[in-house]
Amino acid sequence: MKKLAIFLKKHDLKTYILLEVIGLFFVTAFLISSYNHYQDKKALTKFSHDYVNRYSHSLVKTIEIQMMELVESSYLVSLSLSHIESLKELKAEQILYLKNLFKIFSTLSGFHVSLENGDFIHFHNVEQGDTFQTNREQPLPLNVEYCIVSITHDDRKQNEVWKYYNKGDQIIAQETIPNSNYDPRLKEWYLEAKNNKATYIRPDIKLGNFIKNLTITASKPLLKPDQDVWGVATADLDVRKISQFLRENTTTPHTNMFVLNDNQEVVAASNVNMPMSQLGNNARLITLKELEDDVIWPVFNAYQEQKENQFEISDHNKSYIVNFTNFSESFYETFDHRWKLVTIVPFDEIFRVFLQSQQDKFGIYIFAFVLVFLRIILLSRKLSEPIEELTDEAIKIREFNFDEDIKTDSKIKEVSTLSHTMQTMKISLKSFTKYMPKQLVIRLLEKNQDIELGGESKKLTILFSDIAGFTSVSENMTPQALMTHISDYFENLTQIIIHEKGTIDKYIGDAIMAFWGAPDDDPLRSFHACRAALLCQRALTQLNKNWELQNKPVLKTRFGIHAGEVVVGNMGSSERMNYTLIGDSVNLSSRLEGINKIYGTGIIISETVYGEVKDQFLCRVLDIVAVKGKKQGVKIYELLGQKDAENELCPTADQEAFCLAFEKAFEFYLKMNWEKALAGFLKLKGMIPSYDHTVDLYVDRCQTYIKSPPADEDWDGISHLSSK
Asked: Which of 230, 434, 531, 689 pairs with 408 at a CA distance of 20 to 30 A?
């Protein structure tokens, strides 16, 4: 990402503005003085060379920035993917990320991801005149914008699938080539990146992968935490893009520009769409001698003789201003190419306006003034409007508002590049927040510090949820159907927890672990945790109704909530860490969730949580338990509803009456008055049928103790649980 920093340096834009203002001033001064002193050839020549030289350097810088997108795109592809063994494991959101990344780096021709098993997915733009692979005589539909090629291995067969998309990302056409023999693992770019475990840029320009034009290729290995390679991310730049850029940026109608390498080969040319020689599947760059241009070869000979980067040359009674601009050393260090831009401008075209306007000195002055004034206004608008838009987008990013794409467009390359870079950053941050708590990411950005290992002791409220009988549910569903079903479940519960200010710690199979009070303090952490559990129950009731109508299995979820001291922070290694918590309170929360099945309940909270929320929620005392591995008892309660809340969460009068009666019977139970306790529990039988499971449990206990009462010294009221 260091290479992208060049786009964000303030002096780049300031330099552009300064050069433009100086250029405008120079043009104005020259327009005025050239009418009076147009015979002064030295002044005209100096201005011409300065102008062509500055313009050429600006083009070279822009081409270098475009080329750098090769490296950055492969880096961002590797950043977005986690280790997968085959394309089947590629998630929908990862494919969408790759699509968006492909659109952002508009100068690229395509990029692809190759896996160690031979699977391969490739994105590339479709050019006018491209045909179907299975029928070379049939052209592709006109509205096809790009293509995704995928190669997967099934039953020892290698299928190659081509999908063609329009601007709206809709599939327009599709074709399959069975038994494809394409193997990316045998390609030079794959082997070099894999063996060296570093970014590899192919030194020569060859035909691209599925792109029938010469391309420059950059590859980056995809590494596991142990540094083993599981695939390679690769980007291609069609050199036609450079020719197109030169053609669109010629200064005068007959200006010619060429990009040459050290072998006197033409990489790009403003007057040629694709300077290459092709025979069958073999293609190469053409040399200067093969280029059909009457001026370039005399110019190059003069360059070799004079050893000057700027000079004039006359050919066929016509004068040209010539400029040779070398690409930077940093470009050579990155791409191992020594390129130079050759700019050839007809001398008389630069001054044609002035040479044809000698009749009215005042008219020339007014024309020059108006021209410069309009130029300044246009420049000001081109700079200020997109910068104001990008400022607004930066504020949205700071506030983690990722709802809309950045659509700022500018003909100024640095502003346009900054817009693309901010869009990439927006996508990356949006993806990043899906792997870490959003508030934690915001806090890290505000501190402007690296993430470090370490934690702090803090009192938090922890929630565990788990689906009852999930194993039997999963056995009766296909993996894809199960994944869709559980994802719908997770999406609904997760949104509720986040809305109630909770932090999702992790998903453990079908379970969710969440906590309140970190990374931001929350004085109402237990209140929010209890409310979240009730809202999850309500949402699951509606989900189950919908699933029943769709003949999908219903899910029953149990919750356990406890508050206590834990260590919370970044835990793991220097290479990979997780913001999580550890401590006995975490284990107790998990145990509380599990013992719901003993009491036939849905939400169990500890006595600590009860003490913090008893005024806002209706809770039923359940028992005093010592979970497995512990001797000390903990009083537990069933969470039934929120007082003064929405109708669906608010407890009923029957529930309140039931809780009072149950608590009285439970007090008799603790005092070892088994007969009164039994009578109290029997009265509750059938009062609320869904609570009968707990009532039956205590009826059985009381009857057992009446027949065989425990000794007073052995009785502490604690139920010692032997299972989790």
From this structure: 434
